[in-house]
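Second opinion, please. Pick holes in both lines of this record:
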Amino acid sequence: MNIIGKVTVLPQLPPAIARLSELAYNLYWSWTPHAQSLYADLDHDIWERFHRNPVRLLLEVPQARLTQAAADPAYLARYAAVMADFDAYMGKKDTWVTKNAADLKPVAYFSMEYAFHESLPIYSGGLGVLAGDHCKSASDLGLPFTAVGMLFHQGYFRQLFDKDGWQNEAYDELDLTTLPIRPARNAAGEDVRVRVRIGGREVTVRVWTLQVGRIRVLLLDANVPENSEEDRKLTARLYGGNQELRVQQYVLLGVAGVRALRALDVPASVYHMNEGHAALMGLERMREYVESGLDFAAALETTASSTLFTTHTPVAAGNDAFTYELMDRYVGEWPGLLHTGRDDLYGLARHDQMWDGHLVPSFSMTVFALRLSRAANGVSELHGEVSRDMWNFLYPGAAPQEVPIGHVTNGAHNLTFTSQPMRDLLSTVLPADWTERLEDEAMWQAVENLSDTQLSDVQREMKREMVTFVRVRQREQALRNGASAADVAATDTLLREDVLTIGFARRFATYKRATLLFRDKARLARIVNHPEHPVQFVFAGKAHPADNPGKAFIQEIYRVSQEPEFKGKIVILENYDMNVARHLVQGVDIWLNNPRRPLEASGTSGMKASFNGSPNFSVLDGWWREGYDSTNGWPIGEEREYADLNVQDDADAFSLYSTLEDQIVPRYYGAGQGGESWAHTVRRSIETVSPRFSMQRQVIDYVRQYYVPLSKRGAEVAADHSARARHIASWKTWVRQQWPHTQISAHADLPPTARPGETVKVRAAVNPAGIHPDELKVEAVLMRGDEQHRVALTHGEGNVYSAEVALPDSGLYSLGVRMVPEIAGLSNELELGLIKWA
């Protein structure tokens, strides 16, 4: 047929259930199973076929079925209850923010990917899930919050295994008319378009609005008729192109994202960059300030004063960096727009790297993000330490612990991932408002009142649902790959509901060591085939399309799952997405994670399993290093790093097998009582992980540690046409000019030995090269191992500084004296990155 046009015929919902359409366009339903069931019960087959998308379901379900539902008293009662809850949620005035952070100014949050629900596949993995959960909890807590992202028409790929277990990728074109998005319109009711120059071309960007509870997400879309065929592909695929495409996408996200906020008159006082992909938003914000009359340096200070950067990548190679020549192609016009030179702008991102045997200056998105923000954080305590060490070179002369990168440990959105049966059970012992107090640790102690039988009944129900899901998925895969009738029939007996089941699902980057379990296959075979206490494993995960080593890991697991001793007891599911994730974290007994420490920045999948009572069995890396307390799960290996990776893998594999055989299996199958019982571990898992690693706790941490302070400091720096920013910028220029001419020498009266509490006299002579003494901090630095003590020296006549420095405890100390420039209004004393040691 020669198609000359398309039209979408919207359903005519009966008045009694008319608001189903309104609810379908608010992703509140994505974390509300009772709301989802209203749609699923209209037609379960359509619901599943179209990835549990209520908008699409309402387009496909027959009118007669809608009329029937509208006449069903039981359905109408459920509908009324869901809509009452929805209205109460949307209309709530006394939110956490109004009671605890009423002075919080509006926040704009930029991320390359968001995972809200599997029906909107604009995410690849953990970064997207974290961003989506951040939005959901921002809504729950009542934050003035707007998110900005990209609408990828082909999303991330759909993963298919061939008959040999090799990953293949398929890209499906999204039908925008069936997604829960609407065109963003300005005050005049006009569809919003913004334009951005990329590589000398004018690219038009359409803006869509996605409602997530009380907050909205703006999605950028270059697939419009005004653009060339090539430019329309800029928002085709997430992480699907080469470096040239990525740079262009980053320009789009950062520059067009800020312009979308302006076109819709969305206020923003704090700007949060979720990973370096969003760093180029700083270009547009600086351009606005330059256009208002500020010079480049003052525009930089004003922009950075209200910006937060969150880094997620503890691996150097994972931080995007591009050649200057490539950047010239796509941002070469920006030095002129900012009234500065190329070296000054690119210098903010410069990271000299060894490429092809040569030391080459690169444009690092992470360095640029750090330079264009005045607050930065990692995503777990250990990741904060790793990040401070990674980026220490940006602060020459500083110890790693001084690098101004903090941490906020990641969380997960409890209500998105906790099963409805578990939520119902928790509601029997927790307060009526428990979903609004998820971060309240004391509240969760009531979980102790749940009986062993109550917990096991709910977990058995969810495991049964997961086993059914696995069997259906494996049957579909077998039929597609032309499996024999016997192999297709065998999918009906995969896994057993009465067997200890361990889940492993995540992105298949090689450092996550998905195949560590198979290091000793003979030992593993004895574990899974134990005649009385068997164990079974379910795997899932995607490798990046260009990551052949990651794909090889997937294939290895698939091949092992087909070997006679493991068939039916080890399963790997294809097309890992939020739907697969929910089934696994709600259905397994144990969650396994064994990355190569310290390369797991945080990880969040194990948190979601624990929300459902599944203890973690993980390497002490990322969040589990903070979460493990010896009662709520088990560690793998030791809290250390290894010089030899093979030795590390051997040690961790040995620990994995031994802990499984000696501790986990006996407890699961045993008849222990009280603290020795399996139910005790389940309770401890729920009550310790649920509050501490809730997304509500994470967002509250961001509000208190970063959003509120940045909103205040940003306003102060920008006040009076950026008076303070102009002062700080000119002062920095002066100090950087004079710094090479400053000098410091020091002397200390150090005895050979001393007793704790004794003091030593330290003196320093300074040539400030014209810098005012009040703008120099001179201090003695005592180091004992990694422990640092700093004592300010007092300024005296003739630019001599001195102090009595106490020796607090016994041990071997190193003593040094240094000076750093500082004035009031800096975000931290190392903001200039200038330190001079005597």
